[in-house]
Amino acid sequence: MFAQESWVFLLLAAWFILIPASGTRYQANWESLDARPLPTWYDEAKFGIFVHWGVFSVPGFESEWFWWHWKGQNPPDQKCVQYMLDNYPPGFSYPDFAPQFHAQFFDPDDWADIFEASGAKYVVLTAKHHEGFTTWPSSYSWNWNSVDTGPHRDLVGDLAEAVRNRSLHYGLYNSLYEWFNPLYLADKKNNFTTQDFVLKKLLPELYDMVLSYKPELIWSDGDWEAPDTYWNSTEFLAWLYNDSPVKDVIVTNDRWGAGCYCKHGGYYNCADKYTPGELPKHKWEKCQSVDTQSWGYRRTMRLSELMDLPSIIQDLVQTVAMGGNYLLNVGPTPDGMIPPVFEERLRGIGAWLEVNGEAIYSSKPWRIQTENATVPVWYTSNSKYSSVYAVFMTKPTVYTFHLSEPVTAESTTVTLLGNPEPLRWAPLHPRGLILLLPELPQTPAQAWILKLDGVK
């Protein structure tokens, strides 16, 4: 009896210890979970790197959905069928690709150096895509993980250490569903009235992933075939926000069940490559890929199919001006290299941000987001500097530059970021100003920023 009472006492004591210092405990329902404030680091970061890497990188054909296009959809994608007929022996199955996922040149410090040089403040690695293969030694994914086969190393853990050594935030992408997992297919056949896959595979693996790696962001996906009640999403999120080791810093997205996106969760992804038409009322993120045709590595990618640096900067600026974060994806090769063309893009972003970062990091949307005066302009603001920033990505053909929205005062100053000399300007009425531009510096990003102090 004494032993039982002691056990109960210790359990209750542990429960009270896990109550957040604020006293707030979130309930396992959307009304409560959606009321949780988003940790401030995420909105301040603005720019992150997405990494799609897994067994799908080995065939490197079409996209990371190769297995589904080859064996899942009906009818199958004939290009994928022909690719296998032309390049692999009869009977070769998708799991046979796993031993070829060597990652022999994967250097997490090299990756982290590139990510740091890009100016990104957070990194999100694929821990498990829809194929079900985990890039960490999940005991719930026996022989279908990166330690039991393929690289024979903990890719998630290795990159976590390197990224955090550079003071970058670390997040993990996790697919809720798995295309061909027998437990999932059985639940699906039962119209999701059973939860064998969720209770025996998904949730134990998710809890273990959080406890093992303590990610600061979970990028959930693969939710659309079943409601959140099937995935037990609200129960998991309540634990994540209340009792997990990352409860005070964890950020989540909105893909937690059919009908949830753009409605529930931490920040909103909505659709892939989402671009809102007006300023959203809720924090959001645009995920975009340098390779416009795929998130995973493709052997057949062409330069014309990749975003160039000016396109990326324009996308980043417009996203931030509309209050969003920008998560830019690269797909490494199966041997663990970030293709040089991707590295060139990332380092180019970093070079631009080194000059212009104060208009991006920790910024807020201004009272208007864009105007089309001399050339199209996008606005951000930053309370740290009490400044408004006008970003333009078309080089004017004249030296006079007109902005129609800012309301000036006698104390107003205007500078070009990267050039400390104040610019000459004159007010317009009832609002706006006209200024003289200096010779604009050459930049591969083809984007320049005017800093306006003392305007409304």
Automatic annotation (TrEMBL):
Gene Ontology cellular component annotations, sorted alphabetically: lysosome
Keyword vocabulary terms for this entry: Glycoprotein, Glycosidase, Hydrolase, Lipid metabolism, Lysosome, Signal
Catalysed reaction equations from the record: an alpha-L-fucoside + H2O = L-fucose + an alcohol; a neolactoside IV(2)-alpha-Fuc-nLc4Cer(d18:0) + H2O = a neolactoside nLc4Cer(d18:0) + L-fucose; a neolactoside IV(2)-alpha-Fuc-nLc4Cer(d18:1(4E)) + H2O = a neolactoside nLc4Cer(d18:1(4E)) + L-fucose
Location of this chain's protein in the cell: Lysosome
Superkingdom assignment: Eukaryota
Domain Alpha-L-fucosidase C-terminal: 369-452
Pfam families listed in its UniProt record: Alpha_L_fucos (PF01120), Fucosidase_C (PF16757)
Residues of the site described as May be important for catalysis: 287
Main subcellular location: other
Major enzyme class: hydrolase
Signal peptide: 1-23
Enzyme Commission identifier(s): 3.2.1.51
Domain Glycoside hydrolase family 29 N-terminal as annotated: residue spans: 23-358
GO molecular function, one term: alpha-L-fucosidase activity
GO biological process, one term: fucose metabolic process
UniProt function note: Alpha-L-fucosidase is responsible for hydrolyzing the alpha-1,6-linked fucose joined to the reducing-end N-acetylglucosamine of the carbohydrate moieties of glycoproteins.
Protein family: Belongs to the glycosyl hydrolase 29 family.
UniProt cross-references to PANTHER family, sorted A to Z: ALPHA-L-FUCOSIDASE (PTHR10030), TISSUE ALPHA-L-FUCOSIDASE (PTHR10030:SF2)
Subunit details: Homotetramer.
Protein name: Alpha-L-fucosidase
Organism of provenance: Salmo trutta (Brown trout)
Gene name in the database record: FUCA1
